[in-house]
Amino acid sequence: MFSQPWLASVLKIIRQSGLLLFSLWLFVLAITLMKSGAGELGPLIQSTFALENIANSLGFGWLFAYGVMSGSPVAAAALTFFDAGLIRDLDVFAMITGSRLGASLIVLLIGFVYVLRGKGRSESLGMGLVSICVTGSTYLVALLPGYFMLSSGMLDGLQLQSGALLSSFIDGLFTPIVVLVEQWLSGWMVFLLGMGVILISFRMFDDFLPTESIRQSQLGRLSRLVYRPFVMFLLGSLVTLISMSVSVSISILVPLSNRGFVRRENVIPYIMGANITTFIDTLLAAVLLRNPRAFTVVLAEMISISLVSALILAFFYARYEHSVLKFVNWLVNRNRNLAVFVFFLFLVPLVLLLV
Known about the structure:
Blueprint: H1 4-48, H2 54-68, H3 72-83, H4 89-103, H5 105-116, H6 121-152, H7 164-182, H8 187-208, H9 211-218, H10 229-243, H11 246-251, H12 253-258, H13 268-277, H14 280-289, H15 292-333, H16 335-354
Helix pairs in contact: 1-3, 1-7, 1-8, 2-3, 2-4, 2-16, 3-4, 3-14, 4-6, 4-15, 5-6, 6-13, 6-15, 10-13, 13-15, 14-15, 15-16
């Protein structure tokens, strides 16, 4: 006869599996809704925000990610804007880059929460600041090779043509729902509903992950490996690949730092790896849109950020690590320095949007 703990474990696995499948179903539904409503949203965007160049798109994606406290929904929105013909491929590339820059703010906010709870200021804020510095420095540099790849057409041969079977399955499953929604809501409201649904899907997927056990045991057992940059790079890539959320994979560094499992000087390769595999959900969104060029744009993002990260790890890691940590220590040590830095985190994307 089975024991009660065994039965509880089985029920927990069934519940988590159902939650995972439902979150993926919501994700696909959200992309379908956003695609349907993106075209109607065009006049509103064009009259409110002048997305006339790459700088505007970069700033818009950056601030948009601040607003929804996540980068993946903004990246998905950028793809639907592109699919609707509202922005160019180079603009969607910049907007997705901006979404990643804005998403890193959530790690700093979690650090502030830990400080308010009485945790160590240096450990709590340090992880968020390292995340922002690494993400900002690598993604902004990656704009150059990404721009070259897209403008030169060197990746055009790698465009993905989605299969007819997948297309017909998605259309048959989700089109009736979208048609029903469109009978009650106008186009731009359909898009906003899709944004809400995709936020819920990511939240449900985050709840599916066993983050507490990761914090308390699994990563703690890897303490001997954190001194090896390549291992931490792979670990960051793997955790983000599993979680499909860079916010989750990097945010867990805050409690790990407070418990002494990891230190700031060990997490830079981890963040680099996380910033590459975080595009898996965006690739899926491009496939669901059945837009080969959208897939190529996301691929250019992944290749460019991988190239920059690999060059840093291979040739400049020691100098890069020293510069990042020195700057972070300067920020943490004085409230004025930190306040000015946070002020510029909001000022820079606003200026880019208005330029």
